[in-house]
Amino acid sequence: MRIAITLALALFAAPALAAELTMYKNPSCGCCQGWAEYMQGQGWKTKIIDIDEIEQIKRRYNVPARMESCHTALIDGYVVEGHVPVAAIDKLLKERPRATGLAAPGMPQGSPGMSGTPEPFVVYLFGPDGATPFMRF
């Protein structure tokens, strides 16, 4: 019984155990740094790689042009494009859908790492078959 409880707790803790990300960003982008700091504040170990040709990363990881934002992160086998809130990432890692990843296209005002009055925005789940709304903020 104790082993079953320990195993169940380990399964529910999976997103926390995978709390590492690698983020590719332009060296001069301040909002990207803001998102990294937001993620660090949420307990994520964050490796930042500055790259002048960020478009190469987006192509390498199959980010559709209409889903692009200013930075691209790799999290536990998924691509996370842009200012995606941690709630969407936690849901992604819990549900583990067959997809390339999540995207918050553009740079939504007030999203994690972005300043200004928050505006409503959608986080999309994307993959080879297209993109669908995943969460609304």
Largest sheet: 7 strands, mixed
Q: What do the pLDDT scores average to?
A: 89
| CA-based gyration radius | 15 Å
The CATH architecture category equals 3-Layer(aba) Sandwich
The unreliable regions are 1-16
Order of helices and strands: HHEHEHEEHEEE
Helical percent range? 25-40%
Please give the number of β-strands.
7
What coarse outline follows from CA principal-axis ratios? globular
Strand content: 25-35%
InterPro entries: DUF411, Thioredoxin-like_sf
Signal peptide: 1-18
Protein name: Secreted protein containing DUF411
Keywords: Signal
Description:
This protein has 137 residues and is an alpha/beta fold. It has a single domain (2-136), classed as Glutaredoxin (3-Layer(aba) Sandwich). It has 5 helices and 7 strands. A 7-stranded mixed beta sheet has the order 2-1-3-4-5-6-7, sandwiched between helices. Strand 6 and strand 7 form a beta hairpin. It is globular. The termini are far apart. Keywords: Signal.
Secondary structure: elements and pairs:
Elements: H1 2-12, H2 14-17, E1 20-25, H3 30-41, E2 45-50, H4 54-60, E3 72-75, E4 78-82, H5 86-95, E5 101-104, E6 122-127, E7 130-136
What are its keywords?
137 residues; Glutaredoxin; signal; globular; alpha/beta; Thioredoxin-like_sf; Secreted protein containing DUF411; DUF411; disordered N terminus
